[in-house]
Amino acid sequence: MALKCMVVDDDELARLMIRKYVEKTDFLELTHELSSGIEASNILLQKDNPDVDIIFLDVEMPEMSGIELMESLTSDYQVIMITSAEKYAVRAFEKNATDYLVKPFSYGRFLKAAVKANETLENQRKKAETFHELYVKSDSRIYKIWLENILFIEAMADYVIFNTVKGKHIVHHTMKGIEKKLPGSMFGRVHRSYIINFDKVEYFEDMNVVINDKYIPVGVSYREKVFDRLNML
Questions:
Q1: Which CATH number applies to 133-229?
Q2: Residue 42: helix, strand or coil by DSSP?
Q3: Which of 102, 118, 178, 200 falls between 20 and 30 A from 194, CA-CA?
């Protein structure tokens, strides 16, 4: 599956170059091409974050710089900073950027940064497959939740609700951030507002999955993946 990419740069030629580089790279797909940090912020800070894995982000932009945008993000993305000066490299790494590219950069250097981001995401996925519990802060307490006890997770404005066999926990987080932390072998997104534990699915009816008598809608864009996961005969 190709990694979804966003490029944010006020330089049209730089955006064109990155677009061409992405098109050359089998494991990348460009889904957003933006010319300002504010425009990117309006998209990335939506309550239901867009499907983005890697952000190619220009450091020097008017009104909102790349550094300022990066500081405002509430979800984890692989951010590759783009700059016209080496002096910004230190600041990029201080903000936990995956890599930085100095304009003009070759396809080879671009590919090296993209591979690094891909490897980091793959390591995160492998790590997620090996743990069995989460700690979440809810009502001024930190709770331990066993993954096997999670029924489903639903979005509620700027919060998510963990529905478990023992009750509910309301947590200030994003769906995309939670989705990245959960093992894909057990959990998956079925709707922009729902992540389910596939091990807890009881049956499927009228484009809904049913878990613990709760009817959870399956979004149109998620149906093919859901059907594949349910191993329908």
A1: 2.40.50.1020
A2: helix
A3: 118
Answer positive or negative: Cα dihedral of 29, 35, 37, 41: negative
Q: Higher model confidence: residue 93 or residue 175?
A: 175
Q: Where do the domains of the chain lie?
A: 3-128, 133-229
Give the closest residue to 88 by CA, choosing from 118, 128, 60, 116. 60
- CA gyration radius for the chain? 19
Please name which of 181, 186, 175, 176 lies closest in space to residue 229, comparing C-alpha atoms.
Answer: 186
- 200-229 pLDDT, tens digit per residue, is 999 989 899 999 999 999 999 888 888 888
- What 14-18 contacts at long range (C-beta under 8 Å, 24+ apart), as own/partner pairs, is 14/58, 14/82, 14/103, 17/104, 18/56, 18/82, 18/110
Checking phi first, is residue 206 left (phi over 0); if not, alpha (psi -120 to 50) or beta? Answer: left
DSSP string over 71-129: HH--S--EEEEEESSGGGHHHHHHTT-SEEEESS--HHHHHHHHHHHHHHHHHHHHHHT
Q: Residue 179's closest CA among 221, 121, 114? A: 121
Q: Domain 3-128 has what CATH class?
A: alpha beta
Is the model's pLDDT at 18 over the cut of 60?
Answer: yes
Q: Quick one: pLDDT band at residue 38, thresholds 50, 70, 90?
A: very high
What is the distance between the terminal CA atoms of the chain, rounded to a whole angstrom?
Answer: 25
